[in-house]
Design brief:
Largest sheet: 8 strands, mixed, barrel
Number of domains: 4
Structural class: alpha+beta
Helix content: 40-55%
CATH superfamily of the largest domain: EAL domain
Shape: rod-shaped
Cofactor: Mg(2+)
Number of strands: 27
Organism: Agaribacter marinus
Number of helices: 26
InterPro entries: Biofilm_reg_signaling, EAL_dom, EAL_sf, GGDEF_dom, Nucleotide_cyclase, PAC, PAS, PAS-assoc_C
CATH class of the largest domain: Alpha Beta
Protein name: PAS domain S-box-containing protein/diguanylate cyclase (GGDEF) domain-containing protein
GO molecular function: catalytic activity
């Protein structure tokens, strides 16, 4: 019997569940085990001095009375969940079951089994909060079964997609996808989930009301201890508005707002991609650089709105005549560029370029105008010409400029000689920048003879450049460079001031009417140079030289002049400065401007004088120019006179002034000064 008691006591003390015996009426603990003590935080001895009321929060007192009544009536209570107050003052969740025991002496006790359910309660609370979070989440949550069919959705899914759970229940996710790319993504998602149990990416689906949605999607697998996947949880965030904004920003950064074509940035990215493909797989391609001819005239005469409409039409025509695989961009102004992939040889690209050139023969019709423009196209091939972005673009540009030099309205292949010419041009331009400061420029003077007196009456000043290593550089090689490099104003200023200096210096060696002429580029008449001319005119008039300096200009300056250029021209004429038309008859001659504008001299080009003795036509044309000029009150100077016979004929038709190698080649200033001294 005693052994049985020991066994029962051991079972009581060492049970994993808390056990407590208390007096039914008072609640005072009689026996408790170690598990119960652990739950409450009290020692066994301390608990023997307490009752269950000491461990019960006040808010449970009414419920406790209910349990006591149950025990009175039935002899048991529970299961019943409540909290105990631990020794540390914390609350611990417990589940109780109890039975009443009637002792032989008539005393009643209660045996209670007490289970610590704190972890269970915490898990339950966590589940409750999770459920609450899912239900109130602004992001769609979709639960999928092991077959990836929908078994649950939250309210946000309905709000985003319009689909109620009943609309999609037991449907697989791919049933509501809309975009072909999403089916590829779905296949990738399925494979990734099978391999790694998670996936992230974008899915596109059509909402219940027909809107195309972009959803950032994250899917995780729920895996049992056995390793079997039982559920998938998909989190879908609506990125539609953000994606539209992102797409709009991308389009703004990569496309030309006027034509809708790719812009320079997008082109550079595409070019780099094609170069990488060529390097990896040896896929050749060609570049076409397309520049409109005479586009500036459209803008200047009809306005920029019409010019913009023309550019839009050009973009559409390029797309019409290029292949679907070709990439075309507007890279600025009236310049377009096309990448032609899978072009085996330059000749294949040439056929496409020729087609484009011919396509421009058809007029471009805007709502108000019918416009005719042509195109000059430069063609470069990769890898045969270059395999580096800057080189390809530079070479295409060189080929395009060659097409313009050859008459426009054509295409031109890049050749290595163009590169050599470009290098020479760059070298000369850089050297020219230092020419003024390093005193490499000088003026030579060619005498102009009065055939009536046989004396020097005027001199044309001609710019010369002697470089320490390049030697003498012809004006034909560097004047156009000075214009394109923005150096012509500085050089022209120096020439104009030199003309003043030499006329003052030689004033005592010549007669009062001795004149010096110098050439002026049309660019020098532009608005930005107005301050120089105003100062120069003031200087000339203060020195009383305005009647003895002649500006030589080309016909093109007057034929194609902007209003500001003509205004500057008239200011010079109003100041008394005389003007000569140089190389008359070789440009786009128009008799109209001779009548409208105040000109003093015509200089007949040497092309008419060269064969004067042997060409009846040249004689007729030369005489006609002289007669016409005299009728208009203009003086005539014949250039390029090299024989006495030419001089005699010119004298016979009353051409009074001549210049040429018959009298003297252009001379340095000191030699020309000796020539002036010799005729005294």
């Amino acid at each position: 019997m005693k052994d049985d008691q020991n066994i029962y006591k051991a079972l009581f003390d060492d049970a994993s569940v808390g056990l407590a015996v208390n007096k039914t009426e008072s609640g005072k603990f009689v026996f408790v085990n170690k598990a119960f003590a652990k739950i409450t935080g009290y020692s066994l001895e301390e608990l023997n001095t307490l009752s269950f009321w000491d461990l019960t929060p006040k808010q449970y007192e009414m419920q406790e009375q209910v349990q006591l009544e149950s025990m009175q009536n039935t002899g048991s209570y529970g299961p019943y969940e409540k909290h105990y107050i631990t020794k540390a003052g914390n609350w611990v969740a417990v589940r109780l079951n109890g039975n009443r025991i009637n002792l032989a002496n008539g005393e009643r006790i209660t045996l209670s089994a007490v289970e610590d359910i704190s972890e269970f309660e915490a898990a339950k609370e966590k589940l409750r909060l999770s459920s609450l979070a899912i239900e109130n989440s602004s992001e769609a949550v979709v639960i999928l079964d092991e077959s990836k069919c929908i078994v649950s959705t939250n309210p946000a899914f309905t709000e985003i997609t319009g689909y109620e759970f009943s609309d999609v229940k037991n449907k697989c996710l791919d049933n509501i996808l809309s975009d072909p790319s999403s089916f590829e993504q779905y296949a990738a998602m399925t494979k990734h989930l099978d391999d790694l149990n998670n996936w992230q990416g974008e899915l596109r689906l059509t909402s219940k009301w027909g809107e195309k949605l972009v959803l950032r999607t994250s899917v995780d697998s729920i895996v049992e201890h056995s390793g079997k996947v039982t559920r998938y949880v998909a989190l879908l965030s609506d990125m539609t508005a953000a994606k539209r904004w992102e797409d709009a920003l991308w389009k703004q950064a990569n496309f030309d707002t006027l034509t809708g074509l790719a812009n320079r940035h997008h082109f550079q990215t595409a070019l780099q991609r094609h170069l990488e493909m060529t390097n990896l797989n040896e896929h050749p391609f060609s570049l076409l650089l397309i520049d409109l001819d005479e586009f500036k005239e459209v803008n200047d005469t009809l306005g920029h709105d019409v010019g913009d409409e023309l550019l839009t039409l050009v973009g559409k025509r390029l797309l019409l005549h290029l292949r679907k695989t070709d990439f075309v961009a507007r890279i600025g102004g009236d310049e377009f560029i096309a990448i032609l992939p899978e072009i085996e040889s330059p000749s294949h690209a040439g056929a496409i370029a020729e087609k484009l050139v011919h396509s421009f023969a058809k007029p471009f019709k805007t709502p108000t105008e019918t416009l005719y423009v042509s195109a000059s196209i430069g063609l470069v091939h990769c890898p045969s010409d270059a395999c580096e972005p800057k080189s390809l673009i530079k070479q295409a540009d060189q080929a395009m400029f060659m097409a313009k030099r050859m008459g426009r309205n054509r295409f031109c292949y890049f050749t290595k000689s163009m590169q050599e010419d470009a290098l020479k041009k760059m070298t000369l331009t850089n050297a020219l920048r230092a020419a003024l400061s390093e005193k490499q420029l000088s003026l030579h003077f060619q005498p102009i003879i009065d055939l009536q007196s046989g004396l020097i009456c005027k001199a044309e000043s001609l710019l010369r450049w002697h470089h320490p290593t390049l030697g003498t550089v012809p004006p034909s090689d560097f004047i156009s460079l000075a214009e394109s490099a923005g150096l012509i104003n500085d050089i022209g200023t120096w020439v104009a001031n030199q003309a003043i200096m030499y006329r003052l210096k030689w004033g005592q060696k010549t007669h009062d009417d001795f004149q010096i002429s110098f050439n002026v580029s049309p660019i020098q008449f532009r608005y930005e140079n107005i301050e120089f001319w105003n100062h120069w005119i003031k200087d000339v008039k203060s020195k009383n030289l305005h009647k003895v300096l002649i500006l030589e200009i080309t016909e093109s300056l007057l034929l194609n002049a902007e209003p500001s250029v003509l205004a500057q021209f008239h200011r010079l004429r109003d100041a008394g400065i005389e003007v000569a038309i140089d190389d008359f008859g070789t440009g786009y001659s128009s008799l109209a401007y001779l009548n409208k504008l105040d000109i003093d001299f015509l200089k007949i080009d040497r092309a008419f004088i060269r064969n004067l003795e042997n060409s009846d036509n040249d004689q007729v044309l030369t005489e006609a120019i002289v007669v016409m000029a005299h009728k208009l009150g203009l003086h005539v100077v014949a250039e390029g006179v090299e024989t006495k016979e030419q001089a005699a004929y010119l004298s016979s038709i009353n051409c009074r002034f001549v210049q040429g190698y018959l009298y003297s080649k252009p001379l340095p200033a000191n030699e020309f000064e000796h020539l002036l001294d010799s005729q005294k």
